[in-house]
Design a protein that fits this description.
Layout: H1 3-14, H2 46-58, H3 64-76, H4 82-87, H5 90-96, H6 103-118, E1 122-123, E2 126-127, H7 132-136, H8 143-153, H9 163-171, H10 181-191, H11 196-212
Antiparallel strand pairs: 1-2
Helix pairs in contact: 1-11, 2-3, 2-6, 2-8, 5-6, 9-11
The chain binds a DNA duplex through residues 56-57, 59-67, 69-70, 98-106, 109, 139-145, 148, 160, 162-165, 180, 203-204, 206-207, 210-211, 215-216.
Length: 233
DNA sequence: CGCCAGGCAACAC
DNA sequence: GTGTTGCATGGC
């Protein structure tokens, strides 16, 4: 099984995932009305771009349900905005994002991210696209968060490697899960068409598969790709 | 109760 | 460059 075949099979099994979820736009497009991908693309407006980026920080090491709570609390406080976040007292911001866990660390990360966004040049309804290294220079933004922001916020395909990717790629025999982030990213990108839709959707499908079947303790018994997965042989 | 969840920076070696 | 640790909530 190669990279493209795994993508096609997961798409066939789970259907388009419609990532990235935007709590502020629940009910508008995407699967379950939580996303924007099918028939669309990344957000074209500054609010959506920032919401995806802030969500990428808030979900670090945390279940999305908790990150989403924090995003909603920012929305309810009228603070899901770079200017507002940058102006909040650290402990006030921390109290708002508390449900996401690591709240003191994440409050600081959100301020760093907000200052960065305040320095971006508006372009059309969005922003001029930042470089990957610009994102990686930010305190609190590592490779996965940078690639999530590039792909899902700015529409620049940069394959996202996370624990699910490592696990699924490792078990299906596509890669060594202990390899470095950059090696895994380039391996995935080499194995796939250079397409925003495929990068965005494939990673979302990997997360779905990783949550439902290919868990830390896998459920190979009901796994639809068991027959072509080296792990279960 | 313990384990887990869409990481990252700081530090040790 | 690789390995370890602190950061913390909410669901199961």
């Amino acid at each position: 099984m190669d990279w493209t075949e795994l993508y096609r099979r997961l798409l066939d099994i789970y259907g388009p995932r419609g990532w990235w979820p935007l709590p502020s736009r629940a009910g508008v497009g995407g699967r379950d009305g939580r996303g924007y991908l099918p028939g669309g693309g990344p957000p074209s407006d500054r609010e959506g771009i920032f919401e995806v980026s802030a969500g990428a920080v808030l979900t670090q090491g945390t279940a999305w349900s908790n990150a989403e709570r924090a995003l909603r609390r920012l929305l309810d406080a009228g603070a899901l905005d770079p200017g507002r976040i940058a102006g909040l007292r650290p402990d006030t911001l921390a109290s708002i994002v508390r449900p996401a866990g690591y709240y003191n660390v994440k409050a600081r990360k959100l301020v760093e991210l907000s200052r960065f966004f305040l320095g971006l040049r508006p372009a059309g309804s969005g922003y001029s696209t930042p470089g990957r290294s610009d994102l990686l220079d930010l305190w609190g933004v590592g490779p996965e968060t940078a690639d999530s922001i590039l792909t899902y916020a700015f529409g620049v395909p940069s394959f996202v490697i996370d624990e699910y990717s490592r696990r699924v790629f490792g078990r299906t025999g596509l890669a060594d899960p202990r390899d470095s982030y950059e090696n895994l990213r380039s391996a995935a990108e080499r194995g796939l068409p250079d397409s925003w839709e495929i990068y965005a959707e494939f990673h979302a499908l990997i997360v779905e598969h990783g949550k439902t079947r290919c868990r830390k303790r896998p459920d190979c018994g009901t796994c639809p790709i068991r027959k072509t997965c080296v792990y279960s042989l």
